[in-house]
Backbone:
């Protein structure tokens, strides 16, 4: 059984993340999407909300499950008996950061392999923070995120109704 982790903050999950998850699901027997607490990032959505959105967005992928973790990625991989990590590579600037993380993860666990999937051009410049920013300013992000995320963002950034 070849099981891979697809880790990330997913604040929120985008079409780019979904592309990586579904490609990984075609290559590995099982994919465990691992939603990191990432408290230092001060996420817009709570961990529970992010997990729920990833679950809804991946509901049609039978070999994909969703978990959360708050600690080292190598420990999460051990816990779920995964020997591979799959990450997306978008622009060249991703490379140095990913290279450093992969090197450190090799130091921490030699048996954990990291694989990269190149994002298709349409998702090269997509990120969760860009989606959050556009949505917070009333822009349409529906083509960049799953429908459940579009709905959640609209609800989060809906103009407040004040009683007079
Ligand atoms: N499509 C769209 N966006 C993508 C993407 C893709 N394919 N791949 C990455 N991104 C974006 C995310 O949307 C996010 O955007 P934002 O910063 O604008 O919000 C950005 O890339 C960073 O993604 P994030 O999910 O936060 O991942 P990360 O690469 O920073 O790594 C963990 C997150 C959880 C994997 C990493 O922090 C980790 O391993 N943490 C555990 C602690 C640990 O083990 N540390 C030692 C390792 S060296």
Residues:
């Amino acid at each position: 059984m070849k099981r891979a982790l697809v880790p990330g903050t997913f604040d929120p999950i985008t079409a780019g993340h979904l592309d990586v998850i579904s490609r990984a699901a075609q290559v590995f027997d099982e994919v465990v999407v691992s939603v990191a607490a990432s408290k230092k990032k001060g996420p817009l959505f709570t961990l529970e909300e992010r997990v729920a959105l990833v679950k809804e967005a991946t509901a049609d992928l039978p070999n994909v499950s969703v978990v959360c973790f708050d600690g080292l990625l190598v420990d999460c991989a051990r816990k779920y008996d995964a020997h591979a990590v799959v990450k997306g590579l978008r622009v060249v600037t991703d490379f140095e950061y990913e290279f450093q993380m992969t090197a450190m993860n090799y130091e921490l666990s030699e048996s954990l392999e990291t694989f990269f999937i190149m994002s298709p051009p349409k998702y090269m410049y997509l990120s969760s923070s860009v989606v959050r920013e556009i949505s917070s300013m009333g822009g349409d992000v529906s083509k960049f995120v799953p429908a459940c995320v579009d709905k959640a963002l609209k609800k989060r950034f809906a103009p407040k109704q004040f009683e007079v």
